[in-house]
Amino acid sequence: MAGHSKWANRVHRKGRQDRRRSKLFNKLSRRIITAAREGGSNADMNYKLRAAIDQAQDADMPNDNIEYAIKRGTGEIEGVRYEPALYEGYGPAGIALMIDVLTDNANRTVAELRNVMKECGASLGSPGCVQWMFERKGVIVVPRDEVDEDELFRLAIEAGAEDILEDDEEVWEVRTEPGDYQQVYEVFKAADIQMERAEVTMVSTSNAPVPDDEAAKVVRLLDGLDEHDDVQNVFSNFEISDEVMLAMET
User: Fold this and answer.
1) Does domain 2-74 have CATH number 1.10.10.200?
2) How is the beta sheet containing 2-3 ordered, strand by strand?
3) Contact 178, 198 (CB under 8 A)
4) CB 140 within 8 A of CB 9
5) What pLDDT, in 10s, does the model give residues 212-240?
């Protein structure tokens, strides 16, 4: 069954396309600005900033853009102030949704999110309504054809990884506790392990199977939320059959 991880990997790949790059750079800039504002400009001392810079560099964001965003965050350059917010709700087939945003106008953002969700039969819920279904984990996705399996497992275990998921034919998904993520990431980076996606994120503790006739609506909802400029991440607990997911991608 395909779920949130496969959808997140697909979104990550799409983000590399030129037509989406400006939107991706805008989201990454907000992430850097907020991290620098909260923890300062020293990436060696600011874990959130280090992670945001790594993601920006992975997306081939120009260094000038990164440095500009850091200065925006520290106040060296004036600009819009973005505030983080987390919204929760329910989608088609009762799936749980968590929507992580950075916004300069919360009222506008909420109204726009409601509209996107309403079109797909989804709705916002009260704070805490679905958060209990998720836990914070480090996730590193490695293409199977780019790494020796034994070497990957050895490095992951020695670096302190928690688990390696094997239920995807294209990639390995290495999971860590949030506090161990950076160490595992740095070990992989030093070993020239190609990482398709690497981040501290939310993963579901239980999954909600989606009927085939509702699958397209679920994917359309998640894609619509991800397209919103203020949305940084969308987390869900859905499961869709591999056959249906593949049919929607072709």
Assistant:
1) yes
2) 2-3, 238-240, 208-209
3) no
4) no
5) 889 889 989 998 999 899 999 999 998 88
Helix axis angle, 18-39 to 4-15, nearest 10°: 100
Distance CA 211, CA 92 (A): 10
**Residue whose structure tokens are 């499961």:** 239
Amino acid letter at 246? L
Q: Is 87 helix (H, G, I), strand (E, B) or coil?
A: strand
Q: Spell out the domain ranges in the chain.
A: 2-74
Can you list the positions of beta strands (E) in the chain? 2-3, 83-90, 96-103, 123-124, 134-143, 163-165, 171-176, 197-204, 208-209, 231-236, 238-240
The tokens of 56 are what?
A: 């920006």
User: Residue 7 is encoded by which pair of tokens?
Assistant: 């959808």
What is the C-alpha R_g of the chain?
18
**Phi/psi of residue 22, nearest 5 degrees:** -65, -40
The whole-angstrom separation of Cα 245 and Cα 250 is 9
Q: Tell me the per-residue pLDDT of 137-195, one tens digit each, with 9 for 90 and over.
A: 999 999 998 889 999 999 999 999 999 987 677 889 999 999 999 899 999 999 999 88
pTM to 2 decimals? 0.81
One-letter amino acid for residue 96 of the chain: A
